[in-house]
Amino acid sequence: MRSAKILFKNEEAGILIQYDDASFSFRYHDAWFANENKPAISLGLPKVKQEYQSQYLFPFFYNLLPEGSNKEVVCKLNRIDRNDYFGLLLTTAKNDSIGAVRVIEIAQEV
């Protein structure tokens, strides 16, 4: 299992998890979900429910990934499998991403 904090304008809005079976969940934090002044992070993940499940990386996060030759370069330089979308997301969206959302890996306890 791998997980990441999802930051919206540098405030922690929720958590994205990839499970061992390669499925995903995104969950808004309680305080973010309860505060009606805090926006949804995307139109595809509205605040109508607190937790979302998917067999694939959610389209919103997938669309943050580099494509084409940029993807190839990032994968080669960082030794990431080109089909490891979560790993690619963790690498590319932690410091610089399109829009207000950043993705920061949560270190796993050993």
Describe this structure in words.
It holds the Pfam family Couple_hipA. Residues 5-103 form the HipA N-terminal subdomain domain. This is HipA N-terminal domain-containing protein. With 110 residues, the chain is α+β, with helices and mostly antiparallel strands. The chain has a domain at 2-62 and 94-106. It contains four helices and five strands; from the N terminus they run E-E-E-H-E-H-H-H-E. The chain has a five-stranded antiparallel beta sheet with strand order 4-3-2-1-5. A hairpin with a 5-residue loop joins strand 2 (11-18) and strand 3. It is globular.
Structural key phrases:
five-stranded antiparallel β-sheet, HipA N-terminal domain-containing protein, alpha+beta, 110 residues, 5 strands, globular, HipA_N1, 25% helix
Give average pLDDT, whole number: 92
Q: Structural class of the secondary structure composition?
A: alpha+beta
| Fraction of residues in helix | 25-40%
How much of the polypeptide forms β-strand, as a percent range? Answer: 25-35%
